[in-house]
Design a protein that fits this description.
MreC; Cell shape-determining protein MreC; 30% strand; 6-stranded antiparallel beta barrel; elongated; MreC_beta-barrel_core; Cell/Rod_MreC_2; 28% helix; 371 residues; 19 strands; 2 helices; cell shape; alpha+beta; 6-stranded antiparallel β-barrel
Amino acid sequence: MRDTRESRLLLVLLIAVAFALITVDIRGGEQSPVDGARKAAAAVFGPVEKGVATAVDPIGNAIGAVRASGDDHDQLKALERDNQELRLRLGSDDRNQSRVRQLDGMLKKAGAGQYGIKGAEVIAIGAAQGFSWTVTIDVGSNDGIQRDMTVLNADGLVGRVTTVGPHTSTVLLANDTKFTVGTRMEKSDELGFATGQGDRPLSVQFLNGKAKVKPGDRLVTFGSRAAKPFVPGVPVGEVVRVDPSGGDLTRTVYVRPYVGFTKLDIVGVVVAAPRTDPRDTVLPEKPTPAPTVTVTVTPKPPGENNGNGNAENNGNNNADGNAADNNANNNGNANDNGNANANNNANNNGNGNGNNNGAGDGNADGNADGQ
């Protein structure tokens, strides 16, 4: 259809008629004069709409299914994220429980030794190219940390502070080869110096070359002047090997440290030394040894007869005597397994008496004389 003046007038007329019919239909309600025409149109076009709907519904359902699958996929993703967060939360809870145990043990150590400590977390380890055992903790000068302060954890001596920044500090660990600390042995108070040996036990030289030391003996820090770099009484480790003294002025032993230097997490920096030396009070309690079972054996009385004519002597002498009487001759054999003489006397049921004497190696001859 061409775009002419007549076509435009016709379009405007049709629109005006449509609006008029709509107005009449709305005002007429159920008695609308166009209701019959609407019903007739529905009768004519209803089957066509139904057929079109039947043909189009599978496509619509497919589109809805795709949309629903997209929603389900998003829901599945959301559930997976929730599960992942739950796993992380559970793992974090386990880690938090471990950290709580470490903190609790450290606070008990500090309470036993009357140490004033500042809690910290290990956030980094030393550079491998430095060939040193160091860690970085998350407290520094802003937290009151100073150089040459003792560092401990729930197990014992960790090391000493060597470098301090505003928010972090570096700790030289006790197993480093450049680390040395004065020690005191439990009970005997023998003094020595412990030096780190990396992943091997600490080497401790006692000042007394004749000091009585045995595996299982325990050591604590001796302490430094003005409590720097070490406060007294911090558990160091347990003796595992003792070198022979050989007449030297000093004696070397090897000590397994209480602290596991490869699994450090929560530590404490001693910012206030104890007023008095705690000595051995911070050491862990020794395990109670298992009771020893004693078995008592009751020996048999010596010379007990078992009813078969054989005598058993359970002292230092075991004698087995066999006698045979053939009315004429009496033959006796005796084995003596002890250090004494065995005398076997046999009565002859005939007319004679038999005397059997055994000595030395337990062999004897029996002679019978008939009366």
